[in-house]
Amino acid sequence: MKKRIALLPGDGIGKEVVDVTVEVLKTVAEHFHHQFQFDYGLIGGDAIDQKGNPLPEETIAICKQADAIILGAVGGPKWDQNPMELRPERGLLALRKELDLFANLRPITTFDSLLDSSPLKKEYVNGVDFVIVRELTGGLYFGKPSERITYEGQEAVVDTLLYKRSEIERIIESAFEIASKRRRKHITSVDKANVLESSRVWREVAEEVAKRYPEVTLEHMLVDNAAMQLIRSPKQFDVIVTENMFGDILSDEASMITGSLGMLASASLSSTGLHLYEPIHGSAPDIAGKNIANPVATILSAAMMLRQSFGLEEEAKAIEKAVDNVLNSGTRTADLAQGNKAASTKQMAEEIKNALADDHAILNIMEAYS
Ligand SMILES: NC(=O)C1=CN([C@@H]2O[C@H](COP(=O)(O)OP(=O)(O)OC[C@H]3O[C@@H](n4cnc5c(N)ncnc54)[C@H](O)[C@@H]3O)[C@@H](O)[C@H]2O)C=CC1
Ligand SMILES: CC(C)CC(=O)C(=O)O
Ligand SMILES: [Mg+2]
Description:
The mean pLDDT is 96. The protein is an alpha/beta fold and 370 residues long. The chain is built from 12 helices and 12 strands. The relative contact order is 0.16. The radius of gyration is 21 Å and the shape is globular. Helix 7 links the parallel strand 8 and strand 9 (217-222). The longest helix has 25 residues, at 345-369. The chain has 2 domains: 1-104 and 261-370, 3-Layer(aba) Sandwich (Isopropylmalate Dehydrogenase), CATH 3.40.718.10; 119-258, Isopropylmalate Dehydrogenase, CATH 3.40.718.10. The strands form 2 sheets. The protein has a 10-stranded mixed β-sheet with strand order 2-1-3-12-11-4-5-10-8-9, sandwiched between helices. Strands 6-7 form a two-stranded antiparallel ribbon. Helix 1 (13-32) packs across helix 10 (296-308), helix 8 (223-232) packs parallel to helix 9 and helix 11 packs across helix 12. The structure holds 1,4-dihydronicotinamide adenine dinucleotide (NAI), 2-OXO-4-methylpentanoic acid and magnesium ion (MG). The site of magnesium ion has 2 residues, from helix 9. InterPro entries: IsoCit/isopropylmalate_DH_CS (IPR019818), IsoPropMal-DH-like_dom (IPR024084), Isopropylmalate_DH (IPR004429). Residues 4-352 form the Isopropylmalate dehydrogenase-like domain. Substrate binds at residues 96, 106, 134, 224.
């Protein structure tokens, strides 16, 4: 299979984790006989420095010519004092809007070998398997006005939380579609309907959509309670659907169920069929340039790409199995090493590549003798 993959490494550890993910994808291409063409684009801080724009037109063009996109992360202290429109994060938000990447799927599944790495008790995290469906192109991150103003004669500030009903409906429908294919078929719709009008409409829409999916159960949960329940009893969740900012915050919290923010992959799905795959973490300036970041979130995002965008289920599974095997062997990056000797970003990826190659060799031998 021939596919074009747009690579947007971005800033900080974004570059490091994308670099090694490309090596893993090359190994997949070699062993499964595919041709992946990689086209690099600038986004975020680097794009500001080189092009004066966090999302240059060339980058949008590269993405639109591709079959799928992999993004690292954007941002860093170098650009923290920039005006809002010249912040790296604006580039990512603008790309999500431009490509209509409205549904961000963030699966939270624990690895058996990492049960001791979570700050939560082992028996609470063992068997956790849920997905957060985060609305990605609306809400507070996109509302206008978003500015400093004078209000009642005083310095003030306004951010706007705006959703069209149709935007709420499509993300909730996506969540129901996902839930209807899962074993437990249960949705927790997270909102703040006790105080926000947007959340009241969110609930109304969720109830309407639920009528079309009688096999799926729906419950509503206030976001403050949901934040607590994720720690108290994470196994209760199957599919969480929520608006942009709540999903952003809850998913970083949920990552600790698996042991590290560096473990959570995501798929940002669009209405057009051109999807983007990205780790949920940021550019981690505190560890950038040290070759110590955990690349697993990005490598697993690439597996999501192979499955979702290219229909390459076996290849996606091979990556997931290789990650599992390497973790089972005890190899961990510093975020998970608990003070023990840690593997570097490159070593971790190298081991995953080797595990992929080994596993595939065994499969080939089995096929030859079957
Ligand atoms: N999707 C994106 O591009 C995102 C960008 N950001 C941006 O990233 C910059 C830094 O933001 P922070 O709040 O520090 O969030 P962050 O997610 O970059 O880092 C939070 C903490 O987690 C650690 N961490 C993150 N990813 C890791 C990995 N793969 N392996 C090991 N440790 C990891 C970091 O070292 C840090 O201590 C900011 O400019 C922010 O706006 C933040 C979140 C998402
Ligand atoms: C630019 C931010 C909204 C990125 C972020 O925190 C995320 O998507 O998780
Ligand atoms: Mg975030």
